[in-house]
Amino acid sequence: MCAFLIDLQQHLFLQYALLTGALASVACGVIGAFVLVKRITYIAGGIAHSVLGGMGLALFLQKNGHWEAVTPLHGAVAAAILSALIIGVVSLRAKQREDTVIGALWAVGMAVGVLFISRTPGYNTDLMSYLFGNILMVSTRELWFLVGLDVVVVAAGLAFYNQFVAVCFDGEFAALRGLKVDFFYLLLLCLTALTTVVLAMVVGLVMVIALLTLPTAIAEFFSKTLARMMVLSCVLCFGFTSAGLAVSYGPDLPVGATTILIAGAAYLTMIVVKRLALPGSIGP
Amino acid sequence: MAAERVNHPAIDVENLTVSFGSKPALLDVSITIEAGLAVGVIGPNGAGKSTLIKAILGFVKPDFGKVRILGIPADQARGLVAYVPQRGAVDWDYPITVEEVAMMGRYGHIPWWKDPGLEDKEQVQNALKMVRMSEFRHRQIGRLSGGQQQRVFMARALAQGADVLLLDEPFAGVDAATERAILDVLDRAKRAGRTLVVVHHDLATAAEYFDFLILIKQRLFAYGRPELVLNPELLSEVYEGRLRVFADLSGARASR
Fold first, then answer.
1. What is the pTM for the complete model shown?
2. Residue whose C-alpha is closest to residue B222's, from B24, B9, B43, B37
3. Which of B16, B176, B179, B240 is packed most tightly, with the most Cβ within 10 A?
4. Kind and range of the H or E element at A199?
């Protein structure tokens, strides 16, 4: 731990990693709260996994097609928005097909990604870093891109805070009050998609759902308003990403996996404490 | 409310026909509800009571027929009608306070870039006072009793400031004390000049609670004063003998 703090002052990559965690935490706090109360974790999971398709295609174009300007992060954003819109439109138009479509996009997106990456030099390292995170390899350019995403997500989430609260709480009533419920639902899915891209930089695509939901789920227990839940889960998420970074640094463990295990342990502790403190309550 | 609306009935339903797939939910229903009445909607399960409410709200598209609220077509009259859904409809773990739920009634009045103004806050406090929930205004909604939750949703509808209030089974699954409290709120809303349309399942109390009753089973069987609608022959036709109380409806209240 001490070595981590000393190295943090010297190494830019560690500072970048910490900063990436902070950026991810802000997006996670604001959007994760909506995802949790709207119960669309599974949708977020589907989007996160399908993002690999976009990353793979972008990487392939960059390396094999000599499209230097296209980075995997761009591909990730495009794929995330595309799958958010597909899932969103299906769930609005044909609710009963929603989970089938999510499952299909989940797997097809990954398959596309794996195929493209396998045709690109450097197959293993790239694939592994997308799937399980590469927070220690974030570049200056990527960091700025993440700042941009964060600004978009947080600004939209806060500007339409009341609308999202209303749509997530009782869409029927919101519609009665003249709110464009379908529009805000699609917008929320797109913001969720962008948030999964930011979080994927920290823990990788496969573990995004955990980082999106665990801090928020813990925060929910201590919050009676959504605003408070956002602030609290923001703080918790930053705590987990920083702890993950610090704990994994010495023994050279994978950062993403360490972060998720810390968050999972915290969640489990909360459930146990809650059950001991309030024996009457059922479930987490 | 605006003077030009005074001459219009609160709700005017004309030849309303709604179906879900090949199944008819409402057939050729025409009702005119004058402003300031408390009207109960009765009928067996699956009779289309909720569908009628949803058609008045403009949530379901009729195959045929028209609904007008204070003279304005239902799909354009959204701000004029307030609605209290059945109690099971929301997630009670949702981190939101009583006051915030009531504030949602004001959302149609607040542009997205603004915070609620003084008038919005005042309306919300008045609505909470009306349902006697002021002291609970900072409580999370899951930490309320069933009856209190019901009253929060009534406050949300009242805060909207609409002249027409639609309630879907507000008395379902609440205890007697809560039932009184809800009735009290309905009574005060009515005295404030509002029109109430309430889906109700208990025939024994229907006459006591409402000025007029709508008896419905896909078709409109009766609309009028309770003593006319609660006619044993009519009821046994609509309920097909599934209720045993009609023979003695006048005495039914005594048994409660």
1. 0.83
2. B43
3. B16
4. helix A181-203
